[in-house]
From TrEMBL:
Record domain Formamidopyrimidine-DNA glycosylase catalytic: where: 2-105
Species annotation: Cellulomonas terrae
Stretches assigned to the FPG-type domain: 271-305
Protein family (similarity comment): Belongs to the FPG family.
Protein's name in the database: DNA-(apurinic or apyrimidinic site) lyase
Length: 305
DNA sequence: GAATTATGCCCAT
DNA sequence: TGGGCCTAATTCC
């Protein structure tokens, strides 16, 4: 599920197993041959997520910028460090992939072509990052390019604040509140605007607004500043939880047993997202789905005013 | 088995 | 406004 939490997990996996190593960078698909050649053979010195974008910095200063879009995903093979102590190592992260391996247990990976390492690329692999022990394959990204340091700085500057990539969350929250409360655009659209706040996608958008009991159509300018700040604080909580948990869970009312169930049952995870026509879990009113700026918006007209 | 759908966002028209 | 990315789970016959 490539909202912000997913990209932070990908950056974490890259830091654990590929940062600090000299990498072979290639484009098995061929569409990124020139970009791959620019960083091939260099040491990867950093991997950072900002919002939904991933920035991989090489020793020359050049930066591989990746945006997964709707279909993109990274598949990891070889020696992998669990993302959380005692947890599973990553298999595939991004859009749903390799579901068979997920059923085996999240993180267990399907090994194509037997146990050979490195594995033969399967399908359209845009970029392969390979150390002696680990391979990361990128498929289906909407953006994948190599930038010089100045260009990379511009790309980062275009993004709003991200609670998981700032060292001053309070100041960043003020920036988000400024941007959210200065326009007449619906708050439901502003939360999806990556220059207002980075990393929120369609699920987090719907759930943040429900948790705040806020009507998605409220113009930004009409959102009280303390409500805007509370949205930032809640986003910081949900994002940190999503990064650790590996999926989006926004129902703070679930029992421990239900939280365990939610690992395999996505229908338990959210208040309104993907629940069109089902009764709101608080008011019983059927959850409404409508189009907002070409994306489906789920909300409860009784609770969110 | 085919059609639809999806967590995003860019670009051409 | 529509297509593109390039995939797989889900839903519909």
């Amino acid at each position: 599920m490539p909202e912000g939490h997913t990209v932070h997990r990908i950056a974490r996996q890259l830091r654990l197993d590929l940062v600090g190593r000299r990498l072979a960078v290639s484009s098995p698909q061929g569409r990124f041959a020139a970009g791959a050649a620019r960083v091939d053979g260099q040491v990867l010195v950093a991997a950072d997520a900002v919002g939904k974008q991933l920035f991989c910095t090489f020793e020359s200063g050049d930066v591989l910028r990746v945006h997964l879009g709707l279909y993109g995903a990274w598949d990891f093979f070889g020696s992998l460090t669990p993302l959380v102590p005692g947890g599973f190592a990553a298999g595939s992260m991004g859009a749903p992939r390799l579901r068979r391996s997920v059923r085996m247990g999240e993180g267990e990976r399907e090994t194509p072509a037997g146990d050979a390492f490195p594995p033969e690329p399967v399908g359209q692999v845009r970029v392969r990052l390979a150390s002696a022990e680990t391979v990361a394959d990128l498929r289906g990204p909407t953006a994948c390019e190599v930038l010089d340091p100045a260009e990379a700085a511009v790309a980062v500057a275009r993004l709003g604040p991200d609670p998981a990539s700032t060292d001053d969350p309070d100041a960043a929250g003020e920036v988000m509140a400024d941007r959210l409360t200065s326009r007449n655009v619906a708050v439901g659209q502003l939360l999806m605007d990556q220059s207002v706040v980075a990393g929120i996608g369609n699920i987090y958008r719907a759930e943040l607004l429900f948790r705040a009991r806020l009507d998605p159509h409220t113009p930004g300018r009409r959102v009280p500043r303390d409500v805007a700040r509370a949205l930032w604080d809640d986003w910081a909580v949900l994002l940190a939880d999503g990064i650790e948990r590996g999926f989006i869970l926004t129902r703070e009312d679930l029992s421990e047993a239900q939280r365990v169930e939610a690992v395999t049952d996505a229908t338990l995870r959210n208040w309104v997202y993907h629940r069109a026509g089902e009764p709101c879990l608080v008011s019983g009113t059927p959850v409404v789905v409508e189009e907002m700026a070409t994306r489906k918006l789920y909300w409860c007209p009784t609770c969110q005013v």
